[in-house]
Every structure is written in structure tokens, then in C-alpha cells.
UniProtKB/TrEMBL annotation:
<keyword id="KW-0812">Transmembrane</keyword>
<dbReference type="InterPro" id="IPR005599">
    <property type="entry name" value="GPI_mannosylTrfase"/>
</dbReference>
<feature type="signal peptide">
    <location>
        <begin position="1"/>
        <end position="26"/>
    </location>
</feature>
<keyword id="KW-0337">GPI-anchor biosynthesis</keyword>
<dbReference type="GO" id="GO:0005789">
    <property type="term" value="C:endoplasmic reticulum membrane"/>
</dbReference>
<feature type="transmembrane region" description="Helical">
    <location>
        <begin position="382"/>
        <end position="400"/>
    </location>
</feature>
<comment type="similarity">
    <text>Belongs to the glycosyltransferase 22 family. PIGZ subfamily.</text>
</comment>
<feature type="transmembrane region" description="Helical">
    <location>
        <begin position="351"/>
        <end position="376"/>
    </location>
</feature>
<feature type="transmembrane region" description="Helical">
    <location>
        <begin position="308"/>
        <end position="331"/>
    </location>
</feature>
<feature type="transmembrane region" description="Helical">
    <location>
        <begin position="201"/>
        <end position="218"/>
    </location>
</feature>
<keyword id="KW-0256">Endoplasmic reticulum</keyword>
<keyword id="KW-0472">Membrane</keyword>
<keyword id="KW-1133">Transmembrane helix</keyword>
<keyword id="KW-0732">Signal</keyword>
<feature type="transmembrane region" description="Helical">
    <location>
        <begin position="407"/>
        <end position="433"/>
    </location>
</feature>
<protein>
    <recommendedName>
        <fullName>Mannosyltransferase</fullName>
        <ecNumber>2.4.1.-</ecNumber>
    </recommendedName>
</protein>
<feature type="transmembrane region" description="Helical">
    <location>
        <begin position="132"/>
        <end position="150"/>
    </location>
</feature>
């Protein structure tokens, strides 16, 4: 008993250390750039709307093609930007709005939200008969938690809502038997909220909802009571949907709430009629776009087994492999069980309720994975909500303990690769350029800056902290343009110097630096930001193994020479 108590105390201390690391690394901040959606589905849009900064509005947020709800961006990045704007207006903080606060404040809010995962494990571990502190350490030590759950992804919110849904549908009495479900309204709200955040949430919600339905039928003898549970769920889901549809319609039709207070009764009815005609239901637009194979191909097509064979291992390592092994054993067991007449009478909900905890957790993991695999566009971040059932499953029966050293090494490498290296120079580069643009020298003598980005992820403009009324900064994103197009643009910029206060900067990864030298232009200043790893333009191994490896793992800021 003393050894168990000591192990539990050690696990608590380790969890506290990992929790502090999660918050501290967010504030540091993390420099890794995972995917453009991290910025362009919330912070970039809200910085333009609330702080009036120059931004790039993605097509999903244009009124001509609204595919993303505005509610979550407003409630997350919008709230944090409103807060720092208010602090600056009240002179409490004269320079609150800068590239650091613009990046970190929404991330900090998401980091705080990420502890919903820890709370969910705290609630679920006793129900599923899992060692609490082993599960918490496994969760907090995962690089998915440290990196992905501290970023402003809609997938992050999807994972938090999935965890809350699992808490709501899982209930046990003190004697271990199934308790009567009492959370029908909240389950309806969470399911609808998740659907409006990402329609793929239905894939994650399917098994929890079937499990909940199984508990309802198993614990209730009255048909009236069963109908009452489902009516509560449906009514709350419909009310939540109305709230989202109203908010999105107001936003995308440019009818703002503050305008409604100054209109008379007659015109109010006109506005309501107008809103009804222009009703915006973003999940349906999202599904309409993504169910078109041609549209998905524009974002990249992958084999249907990519989630199973690549992405799951990339995110969860050995835990995913252990789950697959256990899944095959479970499938073999239930194939034999389904042959029996008793299994046919219970049906799927009965199997879920009467089975042991581990098989049910595997269904919570693999059923969403299977549904997401039906789509040809498969990115690793789509699977991050599955960390909750996987951690609970892996922590049961000491499955993960046998592989603890491998798990530690895997998560250290993952945290370093995605939290620091991957496109890791772009955010510090934008910090550097923001300080340059807003330097006292630039303020005293107005300058015009042209920033040309090539072979990097899309640069989030809001981190430059440029007001929409300021026209002295131009951003050109060349993406992955070929050598000819890149050189043509650079040469064009070199020949367009029309003023003494014009400055042109070319930002390229070190692996493309040699291409720029072929463009026939000269540079007078070079700034190398380290580290920066571009998987689209990977380092060349011969150069990487030589003494010049830092240039291959860096991002260059090249200032064009005006006097060439």
C-alpha cells in the first residue's frame, strides 16, 4: 500500500509539472506553425473585425460562401482581442496590442480550455475503472495535448466538446451499476454546438449517443419517460441551432445587433423578414462543399487508410498500435458473440451497455476514425479529439506502462518537431518585421515596406499589427511558386524602387536561398531565423551533414539592395 501511495504522489507531481509546462510553453511562446487554419479560422478574422487590422479573410468567412460559424471565433479570439483593446483604450496598458499579445492571448484562452480534458479524465477514470493519475499523466504528457490543444484550431474545440459529451453520457451509481441518465438537455446542446463548430463532430458523437440511448432503454421501463428524454434532447438541440443560425445570419448579412436598437417596430419586422430570406446555416454549406470530391481534391487527396496507418501513429505512436491490436481481438470476440441469439436481441446499444469498459472505449475510438476515413482529405489534426478514449483505454490494465520509455521519447520528439521546428521561423520572422515596421525610425520618416514570402506557410497578416487605414505595408504571398515565377516577381520589385524610403524584404527558407541567388539581384542585409523546417522543401542531406546545416534549418529575411 505504501508503494502505491508513493507512486500516486509521484504521478500527481508529474502531472502538475506537465500542466505547468503546458501553460508556460504557451506563454513562451511556441514557435512551431502547424497549419494555416490555426490562424485563418479565428484570430486573423477577429483581428480584422475587432481591432481593425489588415488581414486576409479566408473564403469560408466571405458572405458569398459562409462555411464557418462566427460564434466560436467571437467567443475565443474575439473576446481576448476585445479585452486587450479595452485595456489599451482605458490607458491601463498603452501598448497592449502587439504581435506577442495578438498571438498569445487567444492561445492562452485555449490552453485554459484544454484543462477540460484533465477534468474529463478525472470524472471518467472511476467510471471506466481506470487508474486516475496514470491516465492524467498519459494525457498531460502527450505532445498532442501540449501542442495541438494549446492552438486555436476548431479541431481543438471539437476535442473538448467530445470529452464533455463522454462525461455526460457516462454515469455509474456507487455500487457500479448504470445510473439513470439525467443530462438529456445538455447532451442536446453539446451535440448541436459541436455540429456547428465542425459538422464532423457527428462522427465523434455517434457512439456516445448510442451508448446514452442504450442506458436510457436499459434503465427505463416506461415508454413515456423514454420519449421525455428524447424530447428534451431534441428541443434543446433545436434551440441551440436557432441561436447559431441567428448569429451567423446577422454576421454574414452585415446586419449588426447594435443597429437593431435604433429602428422602429415596422422596420424591425422588415429586418426579420430580410434575415429569414438570407438565413445562413454554415454546417450545411460546409457539408455541401466537402462532400464534393473535386473540392476535397483541391486541398489534397489521400488514401482512405491514411488515418489508420499514418496519422494515428503520427499523433499517438504506440498507443494507436496497441489500440489496433486490441481492436482486432475485440472484433473477433464480438463476431462470435453476434452469432448467438441473445446478442441479436440486445442489438448494438445493448452490446455497448453490457460490455466491459475497454471494448466500449475502443468503439469510441475506432468508429469516428472509420467515418473520417471515408473522406479522401485526411490530415492528422482531424484525429486529435480521439485522445480522450485512447488515453482512458491505454491507462487501463497497465497497457501503456510496458512502453513508458518509448512513449516519453516519442512525445519529446513530437513536441520538438511540431512545437519548435515545423515552419518554426515564420512566427519569429513576423515578430521581427512588426518591430521593424513600428520602430521609431519608421514613425519619424514614413516608409513603404514590401514583404514577399515564398515557400512558407501562409503568413498571418494580423501579427504585423497594421491598421486597415495604413497603406505603407504590402504583403505578397508567393506560396510554393517555381523558380521562374519567383525570380520574375523579385526582379520586378527590384526595378520598381521609386522612392528613397521604399524597402523590399524577401522571406524564404534556407533550402530555397540558392534559388534566390540565381535571380540576378543583390541583397544588402540578411537575417537568419533558426530553427525553421519546411517539409515542402526539406533540407538536403549532404548539406545538412556538413558544417552549413544551420542554413538548411533556418528562415532568411533578405533586404533587397536599392543601390544595385
Amino acid at each position: 500500500r505504501g508503494a502505491r501511495r508513493g507512486a500516486a504522489m509521484g504521478a500527481r507531481a508529474l502531472w502538475a509539472l506537465l500542466a505547468a509546462l503546458r501553460a508556460g510553453w504557451c506563454l513562451l511562446p511556441q514557435t512551431g506553425y502547424l497549419h494555416p487554419d490555426e490562424f485563418f479560422q479565428a484570430p486573423e478574422v477577429m483581428a480584422g473585425d475587432i481591432l481593425n487590422l489588415q488581414v486576409y479573410y479566408p473564403w469560408e468567412f466571405l458572405s458569398s460562401s459562409p462555411c464557418r460559424t462566427v460564434v466560436f471565433p467571437l467567443m475565443t479570439s474575439g473576446v481576448t482581442y476585445w479585452a486587450i483593446k479595452s485595456l489599451q483604450q482605458l490607458d491601463i496598458c498603452s501598448s497592449c496590442i502587439n504581435s506577442y499579445t495578438l498571438l498569445v492571448s487567444p492561445r492562452l484562452l485555449f490552453t485554459i480550455f484544454s484543462f477540460i480534458l484533465d477534468y474529463s479524465v478525472y470524472r471518467l477514470a472511476p467510471i471506466w475503472e481506470v487508474d486516475l493519475w496514470k491516465a492524467l499523466v498519459l494525457l498531460a504528457g502527450s505532445y498532442v495535448t501540449l501542442v495541438f490543444y494549446t492552438r486555436t484550431f476548431t479541431n481543438t474545440l471539437e476535442g473538448l466538446l467530445f470529452a464533455l459529451l463522454m462525461v455526460l453520457v457516462s454515469s455509474r451509481k456507487s455500487n457500479g451499476s448504470s445510473a439513470e441518465p439525467t443530462s438529456s438537455p445538455l447532451i442536446g446542446v453539446i451535440t448541436t454546438v459541436g455540429f456547428f463548430n465542425r459538422p464532423t463532430f457527428l462522427a465523434f458523437a455517434l457512439m456516445p449517443l448510442l451508448y446514452w440511448a442504450g442506458l436510457i432503454f436499459d434503465s427505463q421501463k416506461s415508454v413515456k419517460t423514454i420519449i421525455n428524454h428524447f424530447l428534451k434532447l431534441i428541443l434543446c438541440a433545436c434551440f441551440t441551432a436557432i441561436v447559431f443560425i441567428t448569429a451567423d445570419t446577422l454576421y454574414f448579412t452585415s446586419v449588426r445587433l447594435d443597429n437593431l436598437y435604433s429602428i422602429n417596430k415596422g422596420s424591425l419586422f422588415d429586418v426579420i423578414a430580410q434575415l429569414h430570406e438570407k438565413m445562413v446555416v454554415t454546417p450545411f454549406n460546409f457539408l455541401s462543399y466537402n462532400l464534393n470530391p473535386h473540392n476535397l481534391a483541391l486541398h489534397g487527396s489521400h488514401p482512405r487508410v491514411t488515418h489508420f496507418t499514418v496519422n494515428g501513429i503520427m499523433l499517438f505512436g504506440i498507443l494507436h498500435i496497441l489500440a489496433i491490436g486490441a481492436g482486432f481481438k475485440m472484433l473477433k470476440k464480438y463476431v462470435h458473440q453476434l452469432i448467438r441469439v441473445k446478442s441479436y436481441s440486445r442489438g448494438l446499444p445493448g452490446l455497448l451497455v453490457h460490455s466491459e469498459g475497454s471494448p466500449t472505449l475502443l468503439l469510441f475510438y475506432f468508429v469516428p476514425l472509420a467515418f473520417l476515413s471515408l473522406f479522401s482529405h485526411q490530415e492528422p489534426r482531424f484525429l486529435i479529439p480521439l485522445i480522450m478514449p485512447l488515453v482512458l483505454f491505454s491507462a487501463s490494465h497497465n497497457r501503456a506502462m510496458k512502453w513508458k520509455h518509448l512513449i516519453v521519447i516519442f512525445n519529446l520528439l513530437g513536441a520538438f518537431l511540431f512545437g519548435c521546428l515545423h515552419q518554426g521561423g515564420l512566427i519569429p520572422c513576423l515578430f521581427h518585421l512588426e518591430q521593424l515596421i513600428h520602430s521609431p525610425a519608421s514613425s519619424d520618416h514614413p516608409r513603404h515596406y514590401t514583404l514577399l514570402f515564398a515557400h512558407t506557410y501562409m503568413p498571418p497578416r494580423f501579427l504585423l499589427n497594421i491598421k486597415k487605414t495604413d497603406m505603407h505595408v504590402e504583403v505578397i504571398d508567393m506560396a510554393g511558386s517555381g523558380e521562374a515565377a519567383l525570380c520574375q516577381t523579385v526582379e520586378q520589385q527590384a526595378s520598381n524602387f521609386t522612392c528613397s524610403n521604399c524597402y523590399v524584404f524577401v522571406i524564404v527558407p534556407g533550402t530555397v536561398r540558392a534559388t534566390i541567388t540565381k535571380c540576378g539581384v543583390s541583397f544588402k542585409n540578411e537575417t537568419l531565423i533558426f530553427p525553421h523546417l519546411s517539409m515542402e522543401d526539406p533540407p538536403q542531406m549532404p548539406i545538412l551533414s556538413s558544417g552549413n546545416w544551420t542554413s538548411q534549418l533556418g528562415l532568411y529575411i533578405l533586404q533587397l539592395d536599392r543601390d544595385q
